[in-house]
Amino acid sequence: MAAPPSASHDASSHTAVSHSNTMTGHEAQPSFVAPSSFLRPGSASRPGTPAKPLSPLDKEQIEGLRAIRAFLKVRTSYDVLPLSFRLIVFDTALLVKKSLNILIQNGNHHFRISPRLCSRALGIVSAPLWDSKTSTFAGLLTTSDYINVIQYYWQNPDALAAVDQFRLNSLRDIEKAIGVTPLETVSIHPLRPLYEACRKMLASRARRIPLVDVDDETQRAMVVSVVTQYRILKFVAVNVKETQMLRKPLRDLEVGTYTNLQTAQMSTPVMDVIHMLVKNSISSVPILDADGVVINVFESVDVILLIKGGVYDDLGLTVGEALLKRSDDFAGIYSCTLNDRLDTIFDTIRKSRVHRLVVIDERNHLKGLLTLSDILEYILLEGESPDEA
């Protein structure tokens, strides 16, 4: 088994489809930053039936997964937090449009890691909510909440004046009005095992979880921070060398989505893509050209820049026009093939801010999507024995 690559290792073994600032709605061409052809070949056979003895590769994979789970059980959610960070908490009485402007102005990152990362627009759009009347934690504001407001406006175009006056405490009413099932509000104490936080996130379909403590003096709830799937998986990638034991290729794993994929083109209206996001409870839609080649991905966070300042005119743009509003230093789209393995994917997560990987074939045609939720579910549940639970 190869030794874990050092932190100074150069390019990721996964392909990044970069966004071009000169792209128009019909002219975007894929640009591949790092070829994945040097990835080590994996086994071409699928795991055997239960009656078939485990191969050495199977055993190594299981050992690596158990090491990751054991690590998550002895580390706390507090351990994941960086030494320095800033947390934005919103009062539920705040206007929705003001909350959006505040997030955009503050770089939209819970974790302030470096000037380069902080300057990127729209990394993570979320903030804990606080009910000042009851002095209690009131949930988490996410991109989905803003998209729900857009959906409400689209269904009620004459209600723009009312939309402008929506407050954060009315978000649940908006969900009911448009028929959206709200996500369960979960939180966890900072000193509880990280494994427990991960299981809560999986059970609630949440991509992040607030850490809520109790103030020693007032005995009231106190929001400490928010932990995301990315932060947890990067924590694992940095600290658990056994991730290098996950050497089975994706084609031999049941991880990711490969059927019923939602796609769009550069000429697709933005609102059509927003409807896809809401209807299918997804956070991204791959963008293909006329030949079926992946050229970009429209993400739920891309919606936010279209409605800053409470102006909804840009919702009439095409996908290609909307993507031009991305930050100049947008990192690009990460991709992989079915021959890639989780050891190299964890290496990519360790080096780069990855939220999903587009699975493509040798002709850059779409094969599937691999999200951080998929990876987290796999490392928590795959091959878990009764004595581990």
Task: List low-confidence stretches.
Answer: 1-49, 108-124
Number of separate strands: 11
The Cα radius of gyration reads 21 Å
Structural class, from secondary structure content?
alpha+beta
Give the quaternary arrangement of the chains: single chain
The strand line-up of the biggest sheet is: 1-9-10-11
Residue-averaged pLDDT = 81
**Net shape:** globular
Beta-strand residue percentage:
15-25%
Distance between termini? 28 Å
Helix content: 25-40%
Write the layout of secondary structure elements.
Elements: E1 15-17, H1 56-74, H2 77-80, E2 90-91, H3 96-105, H4 115-119, E3 126-131, E4 136-142, H5 143-155, H6 160-164, H7 171-178, H8 194-204, E5 208-214, E6 221-228, H9 229-239, H10 270-280, E7 284-288, E8 294-299, H11 319-323, E9 333-336, H12 342-351, E10 356-360, E11 366-371, H13 372-381
Parallel strand pairs: 2-3, 9-10
Antiparallel strand pairs: 1-9, 3-4, 5-6, 7-8, 10-11
Structural write-up:
By secondary structure, the protein is α+β, with helices and mostly antiparallel strands. 31% of the residues lie in helices and 15% in strands. It has helices at residues 56-74, 77-80, 96-105, 115-119, 143-155, 160-164, 171-178, 194-204, 229-239, 270-280, 319-323, 342-351, 372-381, and strands at residues 15-17, 90-91, 126-131, 136-142, 208-214, 221-228, 284-288, 294-299, 333-336, 356-360, 366-371. The strands form four sheets. Strands 1-9-10-11 form a four-stranded mixed beta sheet. Strands 2-3-4 form a three-stranded mixed beta sheet. Strands 5-6 form a two-stranded antiparallel sheet. A hairpin with a 5-residue loop joins strand 10 and strand 11 (366-371). Helix 5 packs across helix 7 (171-178), helix 8 crosses helix 13 (372-381) and helix 9 (229-239) packs across helix 12. The longest helix is centred in the N-terminal third of the chain and has 19 residues, at 56-74. Residues 1-49 and 108-124 have low confidence and may be disordered.
